[in-house]
Amino acid sequence: MKTSKNNNFSFELFTKEQATNFYTKRAGETRVGEIVPENSVASSKFMLLGIEESAGPIANNGFSGSENAWSAFLANFLNAQIHKNFTGKEIAVLGSIKNINPPVSIEDAKIQVEELDAFVLEILNQELSQSQIPIVIGGGHNNALPLMRWSAQTNGISCINIDPHADCRNTDSRHSGNSFSTALEEKTIESYSVLGLHEAYNNQFILNFLEKHSCFHTYYEDYILGKSTLLTDFQKRVDELIPTEKIAMEIDMDAIAFMPSSALSPSGFSVDQIRAVCLSIRTIQSKVSYLHFPEAAPKTPIEQKIVGKALSYFVRDFVG
């Protein structure tokens, strides 16, 4: 086990023994948990990484719960089926980063997020090669920043985010609401696109920031009216970006209606609409730098089932 600078976070590699806690065998079937934990971390194309923390959302005046998404995912993903259409051969489970000393205040959380930024980048640099594609699950949207920094070390990257919030708040302190404003200000990314903004939950500062930095953005209200579709806008944006740089792919679980998340909303995309995007991303895997699913925050058994099963579908759709 490795710990961060101030010992608030740890990283632990996933083991075959741990996997047995998340799935059950059944005669005549092969479960993901029987195959994927056997795969080589060094040679697998797709690398699953969990982040078990809610310091980022708490620092953004939000709620806890995002530390639970990783285990909810494993309990569903490792129990799913292996067959000719999903062999599980190219995907491995790296491990998880965990908040072992959760913050006791908002100010403490802000300090911890900076520590986590550095630790996530350190783990990515030590454990992954740039030819691998991390699929990162759990935690707050604060973790987008170290993921973008990791990707930008060797590639020019642009970011596409499906999110009701632009997460472009001011950068005076770190939290889950300013990863993309920070990345743009420090020129980590070439461009930022955010699809499905909710008009009611993005303030004037954020809207001015998006305009100032020429960020492509759409509103969920336009999708309600049928002026366009999420998949159409996503594919159009990908076509514009692909010739020049790799894509950092962000899908905030807040974007899905009634999804147990840090900012649960009754209005939003369906799970199937996000599945359609993940299936579309599969066709451009070579251009994807990473895929990130933050902000799911299940707290009850039924919420864990909803979150875990949705994330399992998304990962399988992308990996193929």
Task: Give a structural overview.
This protein has 320 residues and is of the alpha/beta class. It has one domain (2-319): Arginase, Chain A (3-Layer(aba) Sandwich), CATH 3.40.800.10. The two termini are 31 Å apart. It is built from twelve helices and ten strands. The radius of gyration is 18 Å and the shape is globular. Helix 4 (69-77) crosses helix 12 (301-319) and helix 5 (106-127) runs parallel beside helix 6 (144-152). Helix content is 37%, strand content 18%. Strands 1-2-4-3-5-10-9-6-7-8 form a ten-stranded mixed sheet, sandwiched between helices.
Inertia-based shape? globular
Q: Based on the structure given, which CATH architecture is correct?
A: 3-Layer(aba) Sandwich
Question: What's the number of helices?
Answer: 12
Estimate percent helicity. Answer: 25-40%
User: How many domains?
Assistant: 1
How do the strands of the widest beta sheet line up side by side? 1-2-4-3-5-10-9-6-7-8
